[in-house]
Amino acid sequence: MVENTVARDAWMVDVVRRCQRGEPTSWGEAIRLFRPLVARVARSFGLSNGHVEDVCQNTWIRMVQGIGTLREPEKARSWMVTVARREALRHLREHERHVPVGDGHEWDARPCPDPSPEDRALTGSERDQVRAAVAALSPVQRKLVALLFGDEECSYEEICARLGMPRGSIGPTRARIIKRVRQHLADLG
Q1: CA gap 123, 130 in Å, rounded
Q2: Residue whose C-alpha is closest to residue 134's, from 117, 151, 147, 152
Q3: CA distance readout (Å), 117 to 21, 73, 123
Q4: Could you say which DSSP state residue 108 is in?
Q5: Which of 32, 123, 140, 187 is found 20 to 30 A from 56 (Cα to Cα)?
Q6: Where are the alpha helices (DSSP H) in 44-155?
Q7: Residue 177 and residue 156: Cα distance in Å, rounded?
Q8: How far is the C-alpha of 53 from the C-alpha of 39, rounded, in Å?
């Protein structure tokens, strides 16, 4: 057991040093080495699978940016935990939910159970606009939207397998799609 730990630690130090030297093949090893740790830290914050993937991706970016400043490669594991925690906290701050607070009177009014014809028409119109915006996307982007926002919850691994996309491109592609759909809707007024 102790020999395995020593061997693993020596391998980790070697991988980190090779990353610091800029050896391209070392980055894949570093991700394989630290992926379970980073994902476990992100999950400990109660994030959904998609948000865990975003935190992991941002952690890898920080790793690439900061690996050269790491003076003690044997402390890379604790450094990665710290980076992942900071990324998870930053992600939570950026995506926090706002809960209305008040004296409760706003909860007393009950909405009408049946929406008016005007409300139904407006909702239908908005739905049609969103569908039109999604239809304007490329076929791969439409498939990604269906997998990310459909009824069936898919992990990033499943999405990668179904679409043949690299794991690290899903988050940025999703952000571009959302921006494009929003712009399309804004252009419609």
Answers
A1: 11
A2: 147
A3: 66, 65, 10
A4: T
A5: 140
A6: 49-66, 76-94, 117-135, 139-149
A7: 16
A8: 8
Q: Can you give the pLDDT of all 189 residues of the chain as single tens digits? A: 455 667 777 888 898 999 899 888 888 888 888 888 898 999 888 888 888 899 999 998 998 898 888 899 888 888 999 999 999 999 988 886 544 555 555 445 555 556 665 566 556 677 778 888 888 889 988 888 888 877 677 778 888 888 888 888 888 888 888 888 888 878 876
* Structure tokens that stand for 177 in this block: 């799609």
Q: Please give the distance of CA 67 from its chain centroid, rounded to a whole number.
A: 22
pTM given for the model: 0.49
Is-contact 51 34, C-beta < 8 A? no
CA 62 from centroid of its chain's CA atoms:
15
Contact 50, 156 (CB under 8 A): yes
CA distance to 68, 75, 76, per residue, from 71 (Å): 8, 9, 9
Rg, the chain, Cα only: 22
Structural contact between residues 75 and 25, judged by C-beta atoms closer than 8 angstroms: no
Q: How far is residue 184's CA from residue 81's CA, in Å, rounded to a whole number?
A: 40
Instruction: Output helix, strand, coil percentages for the chain, rounded to the nearest 5.
Output: 75, 0, 25
> What span, in angstroms and rounded, lies between the C-alpha atoms of 91 and 55?
7
With beta carbons less than 8 A apart as the criterion, state whether 154 and 170 touch.
no
